[in-house]
Design a protein that fits this description.
Bound molecules: pyridoxal-5'-phosphate
Order of helices and strands: HHEHEHEHEHEEEEEHHEEHHEH
Strand content: 5-15%
Number of helices: 11
Helix content: 40-55%
Distance between the termini: 32 Å
Number of strands: 12
Length: 382
Amino acid sequence: MKFRDLQAQYDHLKDRIDSSIQNVLNGSVFIGGRQVQELEKALAEYVGVKHCISCANGTDALQLVLMAWGIGEGDAVFIPDFTFFATGEVVGQVGATPVFVDVDIDTFNLDCSSLELAILKIKEEGKLNPAVIIPVDLFGLPANYSEIETIASKHDIKVLEDGAQGFGGSLNSKRACSFGDAATTSFFPAKPLGCYGDGGAVFTNDDCVAELIESLKVHGKGTHKYDNVRIGMNSRLDTMQAAILNVKFAALVEYELDRVNWVYREYTKRLSGIVKTPIIPEGYHSSFAQYTIQLTDRSTRDYLQKKLRERGIPTMVYYEKPMHEQRAFEWILRSPVGLEVASRLCETVLSLPMHPYLREADIDYIGSEIIDILNRRKENAG
Ligand SMILES: *Cc1c(COP(=O)(O)O)cnc(C)c1O
């Protein structure tokens, strides 16, 4: 059994993917090209924004937006304490200071009261300028944008949606990657929309920011590649990856999103009442990058993971460490708010195999093994 079965997906889409790759080889345009334009157009339309600008990966996508906004030294960027390292890394990369904010125990996403408190504390201290909030659509579930956008406009702060795991989700019928002033996603193979290597994209309705990012991602080009008007980066999406993504995007929309939501319901039927299962609040749709359960404590979580491994069921811990405990952020002396929920989640979360090609028999097996392992542990303890 695989945690995320990319092989099964390839088997399913083989004819379409092979011919799409063959088309690129036949045309022999490997950077840029029609496939990249097609993808950007299709994704912008689906998400419902004016511009989709593809780039080399989801980390660059975040950095390109911060660069286009001129974020740097003296700026405070508010990010969840419970996320993948890249969300905070890009903040340090442009010279700004990440401010870690606690998350919600049910949704794993930014806790809005913690966010507002952090903004007020930073303002009160008067050392940093509150500049950007980067909410993350963790595990596929959009963050609470209705509240985040209200807080942001009250304090005149920009919002950058990190939709690396969120592509395909929605909130009140508005699609993920359309929230805030700009949004990003990642096409890393294991993400809801993944390619066969690295890739990413920026989404925005802002014409000026879009134009700036088009320049920044190609060495700060002016009228052409050899006219360089600013310091940029080299961050493009390959033609081959775009060709693969065009096929995978169609599959995602046609059936994969429905399928992962079916897997979610089937898991939850078997596991609710046994462990804490994911909570999808009313009005939200998740693209289920992960199906993440919570156990009562670290020893139960570690025990369950070990026993499942012995029985051939792969699981993952996303994430083992909160951001504020990463050594790379040692230079940030302390967060202005408590980060208890993020720290607790790092001890109790466990992500189960989740992908559109998971079979009912697999779900049955995983469900009954979890129940069996936890029951035996309880009996031994009692
Ligand atoms: C994967 C991920 C990124 C980075 O994307 P890459 O394409 O791997 O650079 C950023 N933020 C989050 C939340 C992610 O999960």
